Every structure is written in C-alpha cells, then in structure tokens.
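BUG: 3D viewer hangs when loading the predicted structure for this chain

Environment: internal workstation, default settings.
Expected: structure renders.
Actual: progress bar stalls at 90%.

Input used:
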Amino acid sequence: MEVMWTFNSDNTATQRVILKFNNVTSRDTSTNFTYEYKGSTITLKNDKVTLDYEISISGNNMKLGNEKDGYFNLTKK
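Structure tokens produced before the viewer hung:
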C-alpha cells in the first residue's frame, strides 16, 4: 500500500491510496480535502469527514496523525 498526500497553497489537500497485490494495482483512489493549519494541528475536511491531526514538520519530513487513527511519517518528494 502506498499513501501520498499533496498539500496545496490554496488550503486544499489530496490523499491518494494505491493498493497493489503481486505488483498489480487493485485500487487507486484519491480523496480531496480542505484544510486549516494551526501550527501544531491541522483540520482536514470534506463532505464526509473531519479529521483533526497533530502535525510536526522538520525539513522535508512531516509527521501527521493522532493516537486514534495512527501517524503518517511523510517525506517531501
């Protein structure tokens, strides 16, 4: 499974999830959000869900998540 986040300067974000089995893609889905960044927290919203996450950024690395949902360790490409 590959998870990619794209954050845009217009306060929109996209989460893309790609599921592969034996190197064959079985699912490739994207979910769009708007976001409000507040220093150490971020709120991601769309018409189905609101996610409140802790966020920390150091150089090209970002940690995003919470205790309930877990954490993503992201690296800027």
